[in-house]
Amino acid sequence: MDAPTRSSLASKQTPPQPFSVPFFGQADALFERHLLSDAVVEPVGAYERQRFEALGHSVRDVLAAQWIKTQATYDQADPKRIYYLSMEFLIGRSLTNNLTNLMLNPSFKHAAIEAQLDWVGMVEQEPDAGLGNGGLGRLAACFLDSMATMQLPAMGYGLRYEYGMFKQAIEQGWQREQPDNWLRRQDPWEILRRSEFVEVKLSCSFEMHQGNLQIVAGHPSTLIGVPYDRPIVGFGGRTINSLRLWSATAPDYFDFQEFSSGDFVGALVGSISAQTLTRVLYPDDSTQKGQALRFAQEYFLVACSLADLIRRFRRHSDDWQLLPEKVAIQLNDTHPSLSVPELMRILLDEANLPWDEAWDLTTRSLAYTNHTLLPEALEKWPLHYFRQMLPRQLEIIYEINSRFLSDVRSRHPGDEGIVERVSLIEEGEEDKVRMANLAIVGSHSTNGVAAIHSNLLKTTTVRDLAQIFPERFNNKTNGVTPRRWLLMCNPDLSQVISDAIGEDWMEDFSKIVDLAPHAGEPGFQHAFLQAKRNAKANFAGWLHSVSGQSVDPDSIFDCQIKRIHEYKRQMLNALRVIVLYNRIRAVPDLEITPRTFFFAGKAAPGYRIAKLIIKFLNNLAGTIDGDPLVRGRIKVVFLPEYCVSLAERLIPAADVSNQISTAGYEASGTSNMKFMMNGALTIATRDGATIEMAEQAGEDNFFLFGLTAQQVAESRGWYDPRWHYDNDVETRQAIDLIASDHFSQNERGAFGPIVDILLHGDHYMHLADLSAYLAADQALCALYADRNEWARKAILNVAHSGPFSSDRSIAQYASEIWRAKPCPVA
């Protein structure tokens, strides 16, 4: 793996020092002032939420001067700036993260406790920001952290979702979506920049009809994008960048004449319709209404962000030729692909540039990250949405396509097959714009997010485009920030590491490799295992306090936490549990180490099978809990409302990380990296970044199993899941137990669809990999019995996790794609 350290960008930077403002000299005064002036309460009588808000405002007061200084430095130095566009930023909670990066977290926690404040209670008052769903959004958050830490002049652009995606509740085993009203109370981190609003013009308008937002064609309208800025604190507090989130509103949101005449709803409908645009993340796109809203969201993000960054560029230069020298725009997946026609529209219609010049500037300014190989995730938008909302952008797309296909025909005369495959327009019953093709053709760089993913992207998913533009394709393996995912969330292990190798790893994570020589030391192994035991006990205590569930911290904590999707194969994990369950029932005195299997993740509201899998996992948990023969030996726990804060608690406690996607389907994965950093051992298929992780730590320190991506592809024509059912006893017994309604005794036939999928198709090849999974699992359990050898392998995993820091990822983006350099702030 090509994994340079971040030293190439930061070699001249001074080591971080604790934040220079004498925080504790003014902390009490700031805290009391905000309680008195904002909440109008005496400090002694304040509620926990009021204390949290006062604390958050106090920390923001302290970092505000450096935040302003950062922006002033950029304005004065006029460096090349990076603009990161993403529909998701899964930032989690900000209080402890900001204090960690200001290098104040342990001291401030101690000071709060000394002042007899409930530190944990205050922290718990902050909801996870409802700005993302899964790995895509968490990666974007880690990248912002790394850019600030590495002193890169950068800004994130996203949408300010009022209700996030949804809050997941479990009712009788089923996922129930509830509003995630995370902004119902004041957020102390965001700054409203009302004067920096952006007008977004559409060729349609919107109206509310029976509670739904509908398009009204032929009635042009204007939306107002109002920006809210959040601080992104780099480690050491030297650089504080911004995440700018756009909220939609209407220009004339209140008609007094209508209101005074009694039409109360009509007076407000314009505002309600506009605000609905940024109400939720990813509306249910199983309906046309949901699809239209999502399309409008994506354009709104692009239009606001490009207008804003062009405005910044124009403050310093009237020379459009300098745009690619001063601006790097990264498109995080296909969602912001409308940046291609929108930037062309700005350059053609507002800057009045000729086509060739505008096209050259557009492609040199834009870069695209692909995050998936799944065809359904490569967005394709019907042309009628463009005709209704964005006819000018559609004209531009047609012109881009015409010129591009003309060039393709000149390269491949007579080959209309390749012309059809690479076209930006997919013709069919309903013509659609292929957004991935648009992003690739309209940018200078397309990167995958793991070595296998980037290779499959070039050789299968968009093979023809990769052959046309070979110089544009590259790999940038994902990474996660060690500040949040080790230093902050796992203080016991962090202290053990620092005691052994010093604290330099906190900023330069490549130095974590210095831990490797300690892997065989009994004293260090003992300290490592004790830190893990503490994390498990802490998690068990927290889980009991919030849910009443009891788990044994001396059992093996075996975890699979990620979005619920068939290709991620939570059902393969469930089949493993059923096989173990059957073994114990068959041999009651079977000796096994007690195990707790944790599952967590959300299913998209319209994804029926994924929601049925959640139901099955909960029924599996209930059946095992109700069986006295296995109770206390194996336990299944489904943790609802998976979020950053939950991951921060569970990942440090995990012994085992399951990364068991069908080979060739997982682009990268980032939970795998977080588990590795925290000393969990990985049981996995050879997929995503797990391949590179095993290369770094050594395959003998991983538990790899199953078909390779090539074997999966080669077996498509003949694979028959019934063969495994007929020839493998444990596989047949597990499926028969599901089919017999053993796990649905009061809901006969409930899991018939799961059995049908497994036996009649099994597209994601669960049964092909089950036996190999069980064998790897058996080897894992045998190793766990040797605590010192387990510790040695786990320590080696931590020691070789350095290349999977987001700092390394961003160093590569900055040097190889953006050509951007640090801009240090005094």
Automatic annotation (TrEMBL):
The keyword ATP-binding does not apply. SUPFAM superfamilies: UDP-Glycosyltransferase/glycogen phosphorylase. NCBIfam families: P_ylase. This is Alpha-1,4 glucan phosphorylase. Keywords: Carbohydrate metabolism, Glycosyltransferase, Pyridoxal phosphate, Transferase. InterPro entries: Glycg_phsphrylas, Glyco_trans_35, Pyridoxal_P_attach_site. The keyword Aminoacyl-tRNA synthetase does not apply. It catalyses: [(1->4)-alpha-D-glucosyl](n) + phosphate = [(1->4)-alpha-D-glucosyl](n-1) + alpha-D-glucose 1-phosphate. Its EC number is 2.4.1.1. Belongs to the glycogen phosphorylase family. It is an enzyme of class 2 (transferase). Its cofactor is pyridoxal 5'-phosphate. PANTHER family: GLYCOGEN PHOSPHORYLASE, GLYCOGEN PHOSPHORYLASE, LIVER FORM. Allosteric enzyme that catalyzes the rate-limiting step in glycogen catabolism, the phosphorolytic cleavage of glycogen to produce glucose-1-phosphate, and plays a central role in maintaining cellular and organismal glucose homeostasis.
